[in-house]
Amino acid sequence: MPKNESEITIEIGNLPGISARSDALKSYTGEDGEVATPVPGGKLHRCIAVSFCLLCILQAALNISLRLALSFQQNSLTEEREELKRQLNDYASQQNSLTRERDELKRKLNDFANYAQQGWVYFSDSFYYISSIKKTWQGSRDDCLHRGADLIIINSKEEQVFTRQFEKIMWIGLTDRETEARWEWVDRTLLTTSFWYPGEPNNYIGRNEDCVETWYYNDDNSWNDVVCENQNFWICEKKMAL
Ligand SMILES: [Ca+2]
Ligand SMILES: [Ca+2]
Ligand SMILES: [Ca+2]
Predict the structure, then answer these.
(1) Are strands 126-130 and 150-151 parallel, antiparallel or unpaired?
(2) How far is the CA of 128 from the centre of ligand 1 (A)?
(3) Which pLDDT tens digit goes with each residue over 165-185?
(4) What is the pLDDT of residues 102-151, one digit of tens each?
(5) Are residues 129 and 73 in the same domain?
(6) What pTM was estimated for this model as a whole?
(7) Which ligand has the shortest distance to the CA of 205?
(8) Which of 23, 25, 161, 222 has the most CB atoms around its CB within 10 Å?
(9) Residues whose CB is under 5 A from ligand 3 (ion)?
């Protein structure tokens, strides 16, 4: 006798194999038909979610670390570049200074060669020219100026001794033409250290003696005031420190 549908369903459910599947389905489906989260699958999802979050945090930390490292490296490179720039500027400045110094030494060497060739004598930071002809004091001074120099200014005992070695009566750059008895060098400085021969200056026998010569060159104090229109040799001085 045929059974009704419900009876058949029960029988199928009771079949071996189908029963196990039915048990499994029961775990997913409740009494009222709502779907419930299976316990092992939920754990898996939570693990994946947590891992994903950790990965995100790790990624963010990695990004920050890389950015910091790059920033540090960039700062370091900037500092290094500035230091190199500074060193380069120093080097360029030093080279310019050396070039200027070299040019100045070349110029001095040329000057020394030229003055020496023209018969000038070097002594204690100056070149001296001793004339071989005679002129008035002003004519002598004009000649020195024309040579880029002036009549000698005797600044020291050593320079005074130096002038005596030529054993010549020469004009020197000392005069009181502007104001009597106010002795001035050609650079307008007043006379301080003097080497007058005893009794000089004297405007001898009432003459207007306003210019100075080395009349007594055999004596340590060789100066004599004399009339400026006299004819004498002369000595020019050109300052030229090494
Ligand atoms: Ca001098
Ligand atoms: Ca005088
Ligand atoms: Ca005199």
Answers:
(1) unpaired
(2) 9
(3) 999 999 999 999 999 999 999
(4) 999 999 999 899 999 999 999 999 999 999 999 999 999 999 999 999 99
(5) no
(6) 0.65
(7) 3
(8) 222
(9) 200, 202, 204, 209, 224-225
Distance 225 CA to ligand 2 centre (A): 7
Please give the full DSSP string across 135-182, using - where no structure is assigned.
B-HHHHHHHHHHTT-EE----SHHHHHHHHTT---EEEEEE-SSSTT-
Residues 54 and 159 placed together within one structural domain of the fold: no
Q: What share of the chain is helix, strand, coil (3-state, %, to 5)?
A: 50, 15, 35
Supply the DSSP symbol for 120: -
Residue 113 sits in the same domain as residue 12:
no
User: 130 alpha carbon to ligand 1 midpoint, in Å?
Assistant: 14
**Distance in Å, CA 236 to ligand 1 centroid:** 10
Given a contact cutoff of 8 angstroms between Cβ atoms, the answer to whether 232 and 152 are in contact is no
Residues 142 and 220 reside in one and the same domain: yes
Q: Which domain does 148 fall in, by range?
A: 121-239
